[in-house]
């Protein structure tokens, strides 16, 4: 995942401090080592998408929140090349945050691009109350939710409560693209 501005680390540090957590406490909550958290906060290392998600979950926020910058003006244009994008250096999995001011009430919209044969890795369960809706835009996606495996093709969509482990895998020969809408408005801490 690339973040040349170091914004992810700054936002992690700010949220961690706001919650009154030490690096050790955040490490315990997230399952990410204290050393890695320190290096991410100081923009010395970029986390994988999976690690960034673990950190966001431990900080009780959306991953897109860790990419957010200051509030946008009334008209906020974001060109495709200027989107906050996380690219996992190990797999090439891309996660594009599509955050706008309209989404500040607990709805997160994310675009994913998985190279052929790659996946997100298994992500830990979300907080109770979170629901997700996924729409495949192209390619073939294998969605793993706990013990359930679903093969999804372009145009397929599914809604699920991710209170179990989740993984996104592209078993196809072409890139797979999908939109993920995550409703956190009813999430319980």
Question: Can you give a write-up of this model?
Answer:
The chain has 189 residues and is α+β, with helices and mostly antiparallel strands. It has two domains: 7-67, lambda repressor-like DNA-binding domains (434 Repressor (Amino-terminal Domain), Orthogonal Bundle); 105-183, Jelly Rolls, CATH 2.60.120.10. Helix content is 23%, strand content 27%. The protein contains five helices and nine strands. It has helices at 7-18, 23-30, 34-41, 49-58, 63-67; strands at 85-87, 94-97, 107-114, 131-138, 140-145, 148-153, 157-160, 166-169, 176-183. It has a six-stranded antiparallel beta sheet with strand order 1-2-3-9-4-7. A three-stranded antiparallel beta sheet has the order 6-5-8, with no helix packed on it. A hairpin with a 2-residue loop joins strand 5 (140-145) and strand 6 (148-153). Helix 1 (7-18) packs across helix 3 and helix 2 crosses helix 4. The longest helix is centred in the first third of the chain and has 12 residues, at 7-18. The two termini are 27 Å apart. The mean pLDDT is 84.
